[in-house]
Amino acid sequence: MRRLATIVFVIVICQLSIINSVNAQSKWAERFDRFDSLLAKRYAKGGYDTAYISRPEQKLTLKLRINGGGNTIEVKSDNLNGMRQEANFSTAMRMTMSIGASYRGLGVSLGLNPAKWSGKNKDFALNLRYYTSFLSVDASYQDSKTLHGELGSGESKMHIDAGDVRLKTFLLSAYYTFNYRKFSMPAAFMQSYIQKRSAGSWLAGISYEGGSLKTDRNEEKGIPQSRTYIGNFAIGGGYAHNFVTNNQKWLFHFSLIPNVIIVNRNNITVEDERKYMGYKFPEMIFVNRFAVVYNINKRNFISMTTHFNITAYHASETKIVNNRWNAHICYGWRM
After folding, report:
1. Would you state the torsion angle of the CA atoms of residues 278, 280, 281, 283, taken in this order, to the nearest 10 degrees?
2. From 140, 154, 202, 227, which residue has the greatest number of CB atoms within 10 Å?
């Protein structure tokens, strides 16, 4: 009897465990269904003209991307310590790969940098993007130790090797799309929407650029200790257009947003002598974008995008031009 009772007890415990496991799975399924329902409502939220824009039918999108980027910087300043200072720098081109997934417009990606793993490139970059039907935000941070070029004082110039100069920058651009019912910025850069017919829109935007360019004193190379601080806030507007072929296979995008700098906190310090650049109208930040999307079929696509952020300001006796660019090639699957 004891043996029979033990067997019955074990069977009852197993049944209860199975029931609890099923109940737990059922609760998780209910939670996921509620979460999926919320995403579905957000994903299907209208506000656009369906004759021009639509959402992909598939819930899940997978992307494999190859990314490239770099910087060029030109600095000129007269009469600092009684000398003319010039600097022309460029960073090593950055190449990375990323794998991303997007479910009903909510996405995540993982970037891989083989050059950083091997120690050939110690630069760090972080890019964030947020796109809705009417609002687009791009933010990026860069910490670069691969700047190289020439630094001169008067007629004397010296070569700057990678590691002698350190660049830190933070860029933020945001713009509002007025004709968002017929024109989609995400269709060109995120592929979370589909542009069905050609359309364009005027844009209103703001931009911020902050950062520093530093050199440490090196008597052997004749490099002075210096720091160029950059802090600019700008407002402006521009235009963007999506051109779609008749068979809806190709999408070509271009946009230009010139922003006028209204707040300037730029200064240069050389050997403990600081010089504020002041402000001279017009100082500008240009945000330029180009994109091509080829829809192989309803589930597969290829995209190529480029983004240029050019800052140009000339105040008092100092001129700085900073050109930062990024390019991406992507293959996507909709499932």
Report:
1. -70
2. 140
User: Pairing state of beta strands 300-315 and 135-144?
Assistant: unpaired
Q: CA-CA distance, 153 to 253, in Å (whole number)?
A: 43
Q: What integer pLDDT is reported at residue 86 of this predicted model?
A: 76
- Whole-number Å distance between alpha carbons of 75 and 232: 16
Structure tokens that stand for 187 in this block: 């269709």
DSSP 324: E
Q: From CA 55, how far away is CA 325, in angstroms rounded?
A: 29
Tally of CB atoms within 10 A around 142: 21
Q: What is the pTM of this model?
A: 0.80
Q: How far apart are CA 156 and CA 140, in angstroms?
A: 35
- Written as six digits, the tokens of 229 are 């601080």
State how far Cα 215 lies from the chain centre. 27
Q: What is the tens place of the pLDDT at every residue in 131-142?
A: 888 999 988 888
Q: Which of 246, 331, 330, 335 is nearest to 299 (CA)?
A: 335
Distance CA 232, CA 227 (A): 16
